[in-house]
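Ligand-bound model needed. copper (II) ion.
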Amino acid sequence: MNMDFKKNEFSRRDFIAGIGSGLGGAVSIPILASALGTGSRAVAGPNPSKRAISSQPSAQPLDSRPNDYLPVVTPGIQTLPFEWDGNVKVFKLSAEPVVIQFQDMSDSHGMKRRPIHGWGYNGSIIGPTIEAVEGDIVRVLVENRLSEPTTIHWHGVHLPIEMDGVPGFSQEPIQPGETFVYEFPLIQHGTYFYHPHFMGAKQVGLGMSGFFIVHPRNPEPHQVVDRDFAYFLQTWMVHPGSPIPDTLEMTEFNYFTMNGRPAPDIVPMRAQIGERVRIRVANLSMMTHPIHLHGHTFWITEHGAGFLPQHQHIIANTENISAAEERTFEFIAERKGKWLFHCHFMHHTMNDMHRIPIPGASGHGGHAGHDMGGMRTWIEII
Ligand SMILES: [Cu+2]
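Prediction:
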């Protein structure tokens, strides 16, 4: 293959000049006051020279301007801070080894944890959530701290081919020690995600993925919520005695995670009675997961490509999410209590399933006694 890509020599000036016309000037529009102006949701001020910042604790405030959107909460996972360079939001990702902890059922009670040696971004599996607004220009500096090349593909995002992250098609792989600069304007909103497109089964299978969420610039009234959560589904095969996920496995998995953790370690959600709650769920495992909410009926408001028109919302309490798909669920928190939110393949709510059941033992191997493992969390409505 004779590909002659220029890494890191992408002309930002030419590119932005090009997209400026393509966006009809949208990149220079001021942050507008949105409909998110009540309660904890802040309204952007009238001064177009100041810009919104992330409200996450990890973010370094660059000015006093509040968000013009309700930030997404990815339970247990950071939202990636950014800095401004002119009118560009600049993010930094480091692809690197990450150790996470899964429940070890060798005592049949699930009290132990075992280290899992995966790969992720910025010390995290899944990687930190990237959040921006339709009309923004984003630049993501991707440093490769792995022992092999990698790239990032921005799944579902409309962008120039040079930014699509597919080695052999749009760029050379990012070699260990190198940094590649991705930069593109956001001309759509929706719940997207990022993942490598180099050695995909291995690198994605080791954990490399994360949310890339783009808020609408001017949300319609029905798109306004009080709580906005996101969970990422992954599956793993970790053989007994090994700390390394087997990424050659095609059909059998023994750990099922939401945001890089299996239950009971998944960070749950909380809302107040009467609030409208949004839960975004992305699946980058190699199987389908029927995701079920207890005690409530939800609307399906997105299929991973921006909010659906209201007349296309579907009511349900369980929805299949297949590989590389995303669904957004919204509902009114109507009843107090801790309501389960889980995959309804019951074997996907177990951990460490290579353990052989112990006759008479309450734990019964991976069944974990009275508790559920795997893809199971809850929302507490107070
Ligand atoms: Cu499942």
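The chain has a mean pLDDT of 83.
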